[in-house]
Amino acid sequence: MKFTIFIFCLIAFQATVSLSQNTPPPPRPPKPKIAEKPMPRVKVFPPRELMQQENAAHTEKLIAVDGKVNVQLCVLEGNLKINGWDRNEVRIFVKDGSRIGFNVIEKSKKTGSPVWIEISGVETTKNQPKQSSECLHGDEIEIDVPRSASINVKGQETKTVIDSVRKAVVKISGGDISLRNIAEGIVAVTYEGDVTVENSSGAFNLESATGNILAFEVSPSEIGDIFKAKTTNGAIALQGLEHRQIEVNSISGAISFNGDFLSGGSYNFGTSNGVINLTIPADSSCKITASYGFGGLKSEIPINKIIENKSPGGQNIIGTMGTGDATLNLTTASGAIRIKSKK
């Protein structure tokens, strides 16, 4: 009986073990989900060359030329700087303005290099082809040219600075003109602005409708070169001039001259409303004719009077200093004439 019970218990235990081995384990609880971070967007830039073209704030261009090239250009507005350099090339840089175009007008028959070029603007508009414009414009316009180049500038409102070229012609509506180290002559005309010339040679024709004219250390480059300066409303100051022929006129403004009178020279200074101040060597020699209204004539250098005429409108004096080698004409309708001895 006990054996039977034992056998029964053994069979039940084996059945239980077998059942537990064939039953799959309970499923594991799911892992908590972790929030995924969005991937950062990658910025794609255009090539560097393309960026510079699209965002360009300036243009630059270069052309090989003959050393004595004639360069002409028109500037609508902007600050213009022209410098001479030791290369037979013309380089132009324009900041925040028009594009650049070169027009070769004439080439050298010997070398084939351009001897006469025109610099023009090139305008671009959306969905339109490039169109040539006569005048440049921009905040800054810089040009490098050969030192033997001749420059011809015309324009509207522009401040012009030219340094170290052979010749310069500048005619603008408004803006100051500054010229330095010009070798063979200057024409500078502005209707509203100052004209300043220094350390230059040649024949000079300087004009300003409303502005001052200043010239320092200038001389002729050829015998017979004349210095002329004229302003409607402004002062004229001259120092260190070596020309034998000088013609200076101002309608309303003072005239100052500090220099020497050369033998055989002709010096003419006139103003309708202003003072004439001369500072000359004590041994100056000239024949002097002075006409003045109010203010009189005062001279630290003795004048040998020949003729003196008085009238209700003024006074005329004809006399000499020294032996009278040069000719000096002084005229002021309303202002004094003062002659000082150079220390």
Provide key terms for this protein.
single chain; 343 residues; mainly beta; 2 helices; 8% helix; 59% strand; elongated
Outline of the structure:
The chain is mainly beta and 343 residues long.
Helical element count? 2
Average pLDDT figure? 86
The N- and C-terminal alpha carbons lie at a distance of 158 Å
Share in helix = under 10%
What is the CA-based Rg, rounded? 43 Å
Number of strand segments = 26
Topology pattern, helix = H, strand = E: HHEEEEEEEEEEEEEEEEEEEEEEEEEE
Can you summarize the main beta sheet? 26 strands, mixed
- Total domains: 3
Description of the molecule:
- The chain is mainly beta and 343 residues long.
- The protein has three domains: 58-152; 176-253; 264-343, no CATH class.
- 8% of the residues lie in helices and 59% in strands.
- The protein has two helices and 26 strands.
- The chain has helices at 2-22, 48-54, and strands spanning 58-64, 70-85, 89-95, 99-107, 114-123, 131-133, 135-146, 150-165, 167-174, 177-182, 186-190, 195-201, 204-210, 213-219, 226-233, 236-241, 245-252, 255-258, 266-273, 276-280, 286-294, 297-299, 304-311, 314-321, 326-334, 337-341.
- The protein has a 26-stranded mixed beta sheet that branches.
- The longest helix has 21 residues, at 2-22.
- Residues 39-55 have low confidence and may be disordered.
